[in-house]
Backbone:
């Protein structure tokens, strides 16, 4: 009798364990799907958020960096469909005509340079900016092994180069590439001055490479995907309680991948470098001890 019951007990235990495991994974799965759906919707048309929120990427940190948001619960972000009610999606907003991106510089410290050009600028943009405050938003999802210094970027804000900027994800500047996670940078660039320059905007983002793992070639390759470009605008004459930012996806064509060859150490030289470092440290230590004994 006991032998017959044992398989049934094992089957019940297995079913219960699977049910508990599935139930525990539901909240995270629903949270991620909700975030992904919102990002997909924003890419199709536009998104809305209250003016009390500053950054677009703050609500979609999980989708941008592959990490769960620690400083904000994504379930607390209001549904954009309710916020967008009554807003006209048929405005004659400036239309993106060209976008180019280039990696400039050498070594471990370089710059991503964006060249953005808008069409129908002369008349439509001026008319649009009479009633709306607008800025260009660039969200660059940085690959593993590259980081942006938030303290350096704040100097760009202080010098009025950017309206605002934020770094999401891993902001630890000291970690090597093997121990770090991905991050994303959101740049807000004032759109109004571009009307005096034929709607041509040039944005530079300084980036730095982390210490990569050893490689026999002496270089580690890092590739950048296409950034997200949005037109962020709101009505000028609105009450703070009813102020809504509209983020319209500019449907930019994918740009060419930027490839960064980061210098790294050669594993074949590890023994020689370690020995030389040990001997140098030993000589320096002996010199300090000898100098201290002579003085005393």
Residues:
């Amino acid at each position: 009798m006991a032998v017959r019951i044992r398989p049934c007990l094992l089957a019940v235990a297995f079913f219960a364990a699977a049910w508990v495991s599935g139930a525990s994974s539901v909240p995270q799965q629903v949270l991620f799907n909700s975030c992904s759906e919102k990002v997909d919707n924003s890419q199709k048309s536009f998104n809305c958020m209250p003016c009390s929120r500053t950054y677009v990427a703050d609500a979609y940190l999980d989708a941008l960096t592959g990490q769960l948001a620690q400083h904000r619960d994504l379930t607390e972000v209001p549904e954009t469909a309710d916020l967008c009610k009554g807003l006209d999606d048929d405005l004659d907003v400036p239309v993106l005509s060209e976008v180019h991106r280039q990696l400039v510089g050498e070594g471990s410290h370089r710059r991503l340079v964006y060249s953005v050009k808008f069409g129908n600028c002369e008349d439509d943009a001026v008319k649009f900016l009479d009633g709306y405050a607008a800025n260009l938003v660039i969200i660059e999802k940085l690959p593993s092994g590259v980081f942006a210094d938030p303290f350096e970027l704040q100097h760009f804000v202080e010098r009025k180069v950017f309206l605002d900027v934020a770094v999401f994800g891993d902001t630890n500047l000291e970690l090597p590439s093997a121990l770090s996670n991905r991050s994303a940078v959101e740049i807000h660039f004032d759109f109004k001055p571009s009307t005096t320059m034929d709607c041509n905007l040039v944005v530079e983002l300084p980036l730095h490479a982390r210490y990569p793992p050893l490689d026999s070639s002496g270089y580690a390759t890092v590739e950048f995907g296409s950034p997200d470009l949005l037109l962020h605008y709101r009505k000028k004459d609105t009450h703070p309680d009813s102020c809504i930012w509209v983020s319209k996806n500019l449907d930019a064509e994918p740009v060419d991948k930027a490839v960064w060859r980061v210098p790294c150490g050669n594993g074949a030289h590890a023994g020689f470098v370690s020995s030389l470092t040990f001997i140098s440290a030993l000589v320096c230590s002996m010199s300090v001890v000898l100098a201290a004994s002579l003085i005393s």
Q: What stands out?
A: The first strand starts at residue 46 and ends at 50. Residues 138 and 229 are 5 Å apart (CA to CA).
